[in-house]
UniProtKB/TrEMBL annotation:
This is YitT family protein. Gene3D superfamilies: 3.30.70.120. One of its GO terms (cellular component) is plasma membrane. PANTHER family: UPF0750 MEMBRANE PROTEIN YITT-RELATED, UPF0750 MEMBRANE PROTEIN YQFU.
């Protein structure tokens, strides 16, 4: 990741960035005060450890949130850029301030509702803040940095950290609460993924077919999708390794709603067509969400 040399104040003070951050922090506030903290439920990461520190050592949540995010803010400054670190600092301080000066009433004491809606609101908050250019939980950046130092993957580091956190919750609050906290974390993770990546979940569909010209025509003219064509070779079967043929490899970007219809149509053209599907985190360039997208 490249380091940014200057702070982009225009980006920081843009209306969209401010709205995403403010609504995200408020959503996190609802989750924490309305569902999680009164019922001793944890999330993963820095948010979870801040709740645990308040419950065990009576250190205010807001202080723990700032202190435990300081390494992240420093690494964000060093590894990602100044603009990102300023956005993150603003989000963390805003959440800490709201947690200190605003009281939101407890919504429910039903454990399933707490786990589901607490996770939903905290995940929504995390996702919106990320969309605004910042973050309220720095564990993933810390994990990325540690990955380079000790050789463990980001997933392994996050899983190890959260496992220790939930074990601590089990000792302090009981195994049942710890199990519900895992559900909170899972719900939050899935919700934040949807908010950050979008609900359309773009997918790369790749087709290799003998009837490649007809396949191209159907995708472009019937479904209105742009395509990319790679030149390749097919064949190389175990029983006839030396037999090969030139072919066109057709790739297009579709949503999960479109993918089934396109595959079924192509199967009519060529029942032996070969497909493979890859999920894409993000689509940029061209007109990504419209039919006339150019690759």
């Amino acid at each position: 990741m490249s380091n940014s040399n200057a702070i982009d104040w225009k980006s920081i003070f843009s209306l969209s960035s401010i709205l995403y951050t403010v609504f995200g922090v408020f959503s996190a506030l609802v989750a924490l005060q309305g569902f999680m903290i009164p019922n001793h439920f944890l999330d993963g990461g820095i948010t979870g450890i801040s709740i645990l520190m308040e419950e065990v050592f009576h250190i205010p949540f807001s202080i723990s949130l700032i202190i435990f995010n300081l390494p992240f803010l420093y690494l964000g400054y060093r590894k990602i850029g100044k603009t990102f670190s300023v956005n993150a600092l603003f989000a963390v301080l805003l959440l800490a301030a709201l947690m200190t000066f605003i009281t939101f009433p407890q919504v429910t004491s039903d454990k399933v509702l707490i786990a589901v809606f607490g996770g939903l609101f905290i995940g929504l908050g995390i996702g919106l803040v990320i969309r605004g250019g910042g973050v309220i939980d720095g564990l993933e950046i810390i994990a990325h940095y540690t990955n380079k130092k000790i050789g463990f993957s980001t997933s392994e580091i996050i899983m190890s950290f959260n496992s220790l956190l939930f074990i601590g919750a089990a000792f302090e609050f009981g195994i049942e609460t710890a199990m519900y906290s895992i559900l909170v974390y899972y719900t939050a993770m899935k919700t934040s993924d949807y908010v950050v990546d979008g609900f359309e979940e773009f997918t790369a569909l790749t087709i290799i077919s003998r009837e490649c010209e007809e396949v191209k025509s159907v995708i472009v003219n019937d479904f209105g999708k742009a395509i990319t064509v790679y030149k390749g070779e097919r064949g190389y079967l175990p029983s006839s390794f030396k037999v090969k043929h030139d072919c066109d490899i057709v790739m297009t970007i579709v949503t999960r709603i479109e993918i089934h219809r396109i595959k079924e149509t192509i199967k009519v053209i060529d029942p032996n067509a070969f497909f493979y599907v890859q999920r894409i985190k993000e689509v940029k360039g061209g007109v990504g969400k419209h039919n006339n997208m150019e690759h």
